[in-house]
Amino acid sequence: MTAYGIAHLRTTSEHDDILEYLERIQATLDPYGGRFVIHGGPVTVVEGSWPGTLVAIAFPSMTQVREWYDSPAYRAILPLRTKHLDGDVIMIEGVDPDTHDSAAMAAALRARR
What sequence ranges are listed for the domain DUF1330 (predicted)? Predict the structure, then answer.
């Protein structure tokens, strides 16, 4: 099942460390099948507020997201980002678009009440 590493970065910076992080991150993703699906860019806010930007990286599985994040290669560059950008990072498993049914999910939630 596809899983994602998602970062909501509330601040942005063009610090030299951030540029180095950007130059080096793909090499840390490749062994784990990670690929950017969202990497910054303009955001159209239609409800609430959204300070900052969004980054989403897709991986073949949750195991691979965790292994990438804990890998020595990624840990070596992580401080380049964390010293200069404020934000939140999560890992989350996706749903199977061929079988996910929101109505069935609602029915199961109702049944638990």
Answer: 2-95
HSE-CB of 90 using CA atoms within 13 angstroms: 5
CATH number at residue 83: 3.30.70.100
Question: What is the domain extent for residue 26?
Answer: 3-112
For residue 78, what pLDDT is reported?
A: 98
Please name which of 84, 88, 67, 77 lies closest in space to residue 23, comparing C-alpha atoms.
77
Sign of CA dihedral 81, 87, 92, 98: negative
User: What's the number of domains the chain is made of?
Assistant: 1
Burial category of 73 from C-beta neighbours within 10 Å (exposed 0-12, middle 13-18, buried 19 and up):
middle
Give the global pTM: 0.91
Spatial neighbors of 62 by CB under 8 A, at least 6 apart, are: 1, 3, 91, 93
